[in-house]
Amino acid sequence: MPEVNSLVNEFLIKLKKRKIEGSKATAKLTAEVLRSFISQKRLPHTNQADALIEAVKAVGEELIDANPVELAVGNIVRRVLHIIREEDLSLTTAAVGGLSLSAESDNEDDVDQDDHPALSATAVAAAARSTLRPPSLQTLLEDMPHSTAVPQTSSSGGDSEGKSKSADKNLKTRKLKHNVIEAVNELIQDISTCHELIAEQAVEHIHQNEVILTLGSSRTVTEFLCAAKEKKRSFRVFVAEGAPRYQGHALAKELAARGLQTTIITDSAVFAMISRVNMVIVGAHAVMANGGVIAPVGMNMVALAAQRHAVPFVVLAGVHKLCPLYPHNPEVLLNELKSPSELLDFGEFSDCLDFGCRSGSPLLHVVNPAFDYVPPNLVSLFITDTGGHNPSYMYRLLADYYSADDLVVRRRSAS
Amino acid sequence: MDPRRLPRTVTDPKVRHVGFFAPVGPPDESMSSPPRQTTLSPPVAGYSLSPVMIPPPRHLSSDNAPLSPLIAADSFLPVGSYNPSEFSSPSATEDFSEDNFSKDTGWVLNENSGKAALKQNTHAASGLTPVITNEGPPMEAQKEQPPASSKPKKEKTTKSERRALQEAQRTAKAAANAGGSKKSAAASAVVNSANANTKKVAKAPPRKKDSSSVAASEKKGGDRQTDKDRKKDIPHPRMQFDDEDQVEKAKKRSVVKQTESRNRVELFRHLPQYEHGTQLLDLESKFFQLDTVHPAIYAVGLRFLTGDISGGNARCIAMLQAFQESIKDYFTPMEKELTRDLPTKINGYVSFLIQCRPLSISMGNAINFLKHKIPELPSTMSESEAKASLLSDIDRFINEKIILAEKVIARHAVTKIRDGDVLLIHGSSSVVEMIFLCAQELGKQFRVVIVDSRPKLEGRMLLRRLLGKGISCTYTHLNAISYIMHEVTRVFLGASSVLSNGTVYSRVGNASVAMVAHQFHVPVLVCCEAYKFHKRVQLDSICFNELGDPDDIARVSGKEDIKYLNDWASIQNLQLLNLIYDATPSDYISMIITEYGMIPPTSVPVIVQEYGEHLLI
């Protein structure tokens, strides 16, 4: 246990110091930390799932607080919680056996998206529990007391009741943990392979002689464009350099090295060039439940320009970037102000930052936000590893990955 | 839309009209010839680069002393506003386009020289008086007589009546004009045009400048000449650098050796893309061979090339002052005439400057002004007189069209700044800076957001200057525009040029700023002197633009760790595109502030047409 705590603490410090960059790296690390945490966690004999969920929530809360802007952390915590619930349910239903098999309905098809096709029996219960999923008439009738008792926070109580009934559960002490870890491994696998899955779809979206514009740098976008190039498509790419970090330079260099016709433009030239562009393909920092995108700063400008010229604005996002929360005032609340030193050299204007004289407040403020919010109406298409989706479909896609009970990752005691 | 209609904080509603006035009473000959002017300018003098179109010389009164606009600007100028109803008055049109343009008159007066002649008794004590001291009545003379009084009367006359009246006036003027042009057929180059002119006059009434409004009546006459003239009105096509023949020819003529850059951007083949950095050395080494280029021009050219002088007004002033120097040192060679030899000299200088850096549209207008002035010099004038006259003309242009205009614009724009405003500026614009300083002097409480963009980062210089004046500033980069726009209440932009379809052609990035501001319903005010207006139209930023040094993009100043592109030229598929300008569509612009007043972008062609490019300057 101590080594796990130190692992978690180390990760916390890294998050707080913003040492980890990029949602993918963060997501992967979060999943790995949670996996080792779960494997080390000693579980009581009764109410295993509840205990595990509580423990993961406790850690997850800390992790989210360490960097509330990095939504990937919260996403992974919620997914792990969801995994625990699913596994627990599947064990329960397996124990109850034939009883719930009769309840098995045509919901089965929905479940296949869950990457757990083998556990189709869990689907029914899961479907009934998920408030987002339309329950069939039968389940509605049967589970009436259950589904009314499901509001937001207190569902785990309902689960545990059903679980405690199963007598032979203690025998499966190891089973739950094992299954959960297995599923988390799968999740980590998913995160690391999402690039390839997204890139595979490239040829469906890029045609010959297309002109594509992108801003800043994103691993997913690089892979996407290169995948199309490898399929013998020849097209041109405009790369806006993406102040204040100018990662576009690195992206452009890599694309050019892979044989793509690449042109670097300044961010200010985006509006001038967009009229000659066929498609804008960008990466995202996070995708919200309403279909809005938290993206590197400058993206809203690009999206507006694209809308003006009716250029499709395509966002590539791995599943770990899908956030089940709805944004409120995201420009401010889901943003982060970076160091002014990226804009002005330290000391360059120190003579102007004189607190002593005048009214006591400095004349100069430097604003350097890290993210931009692109509202859903500016996005034409999301390409995730499960395919292309409309912004309006995002809320539904999320229901497959997150349990509605976990949207607020806070222990009840804390809240 | 609301912000455009803000109540103006002008105290005296009477002094609003600076720009366009409906003249009082019907225009007649006595009106249109103020005391100092004896000759009528020919209405044929359309805008064109070709010498055929140059109007016959006039009797000059342009040798009068240079004006003192600075004094004028310091006193209070009335705040003008655009009054659309005045455009609708046909007699106003007549007045602007056909009324002879007094060359020595400041632009401020042109529009009311006629009226002024009528009521010389009404010299209201207005701040403009110093500007017009040489001229006569101040522009505010009509203050006591609101245009409204004349309007109902005008509306009563039917269209045909008005047309008949116009025709009559036009023929009368043309007759006078023909006499004038015959009398003063100066250079042989102008002879053709003069002949054509007189012939045409004999046949039919001459073409009106405002051709669109009278197109119908002229078609009736079956005037073939008119169509031809109108074609000449179309701006001269620019050099296209993907035309190999043209480029070869240009290369032969060029003094500066320019090597085409290696990784050229395909989309911009039609624009010059040369290696930067080599020209300077080349030019320096050629200093003693370039005896055709005056040293002052040479110096200015080098400073353009190195980016030492940048900004539309600064470049234009520097160029004109260099022309002044060269004119001072100019001596007409034996057996040549000044009116013919000097333009060729100046053409040589201009092409030299173009090789250093492509001229901005405003500079083109200034050169046109000069080219219009030279043939107008009477042949009877001695060389020194002619030179003095040109020098004072240039002085007047600099003072009135640029320096004074800036001040007037600042006066106009300050009325749009309220206490508590947050004003956004992108890049650096001398006019906008002046507006801020002006507002600060008036004690307005406001904050400035400076949005900067690569590669020039002009905002830093502006930031330093504004901080020095004690103005509270927020500094950010262009990508953060959506973040910062929430708190902004006004966007002020400068412009390199305003084109006649309302497009504002300006520093790259201004279009993005205007777009985001439009999205956030923040009014966008473009501040631009009228000498930067141009007849051209443009829809995108690609057909015409200027490309800067791509190396500027590869280097990120102050960030040594970003060096992915140090060897970009050796990477085959990589191009760097450093656009200098972009075109802001007119629908993003709430208002254009010129010295003539504040106008919507849809009225730009009206200014260009009514004031005409040769009348503007």
Helix residue percentage of chain B: 40-55%
Largest sheet of chain B: 7 strands, mixed
Structural class of chain A: alpha/beta
Q: Count of helices of chain A?
A: 18
Please identify the structural class of chain B as seen in this structure.
alpha/beta
Uncertain residue segments of chain B? 1-155, 179-225
Give the mean pLDDT of chain A: 81
What is the count of β-strands of chain B? 12
Largest sheet strand order of chain B: 3-2-1-4-7-11-12
Low-confidence stretches of chain A: 100-121, 146-167
Largest sheet of chain A: 7 strands, mixed
Give the overall form of chain B: globular
Q: Main traits of this protein?
A:
heterodimer; A: 415 residues; alpha/beta; 7-stranded mixed sheet; 3-stranded antiparallel sheet; 11 strands; 11% strand; B: 617 residues; 4-stranded mixed sheet; 26 helices; 8% strand; globular
Account of the protein in words:
The complex is a heterodimer of chains A (415) and B (617). Helix content of chain A is 47%, strand content 11%. Chain A has 415 residues and is an alpha/beta fold. Helices cover 44% and strands 8% of the residues of chain B. Chain B has a 7-stranded mixed beta sheet with strand order 3-2-1-4-7-11-12. In chain B, α15 (295-306) runs antiparallel to α16 (312-328), α15 (295-306) runs parallel beside α17 and α18 runs antiparallel to α19. In chain B, 50% of the residues are buried. The model of chain B is unreliable at 1-155 and 179-225 (pLDDT under 50). The interface between A and B is large, with 55 and 59 residues. β8 of chain A pairs parallel with β3 of chain B, so a sheet runs across the interface.
